[in-house]
Design a protein that fits this description.
141 residues; alpha+beta; Aminopeptidase
């Protein structure tokens, strides 16, 4: 397995993976999102590749805050359904932790939907603990 930074040529593979986590937008809209994230200095997209195929993706970013120290946020982690439980997710999370340490950030945080119990078990197995619960609110503009 190779863990590396995503490249523009990975957009189709990342789009396919994101579609396994959430409703992915059409290809053109996704490409615009992907390119914007790649161009942002405090964001990073990494992929896991096995035998030349992208089987995992992680999007992370540095989040500054007023009420607590800056932290690394994992925005999205997706491992292809065919490659789950093979170490891909842990390898991506360890790379996120290494990036946080390089940036001198004290912690890595993420949100996980309440219904994703298998994901919760994975995160707990690699050392993450529930810190708080909240309600996400949104208003369309």
């Amino acid at each position: 397995m190779i863990v590396r930074d995503a490249r523009p040529a990975d957009v189709a593979a990342v789009h396919r993976l994101i579609g396994q986590l959430a409703d992915a937008p059409d290809e053109a809209a996704f490409r615009a999102r992907f390119e914007r994230v790649l161009a942002t200095d405090d964001h990073r997209i990494i992929v896991a590749e096995v035998e030349g195929k992208v089987v995992g993706v992680l999007h992370m970013f540095e989040r500054p805050a007023l009420e607590k120290p800056c932290e690394l946020m994992v925005q999205a982690l997706v491992v292809d359904s065919e490659a789950r439980s093979s170490g891909v997710g842990e390898a991506l999370m360890r790379e996120a932790e290494a990036w946080a340490q390089q940036r001198k950030l004290p912690s890595v945080s993420l949100y996980s939907r309440v219904d994703r119990t298998r994901a919760h078990a994975f995160y707990e197995r690699i050392g993450y603990r529930i810190k708080a619960t909240s309600v996400r609110m949104e208003r369309d503009l």
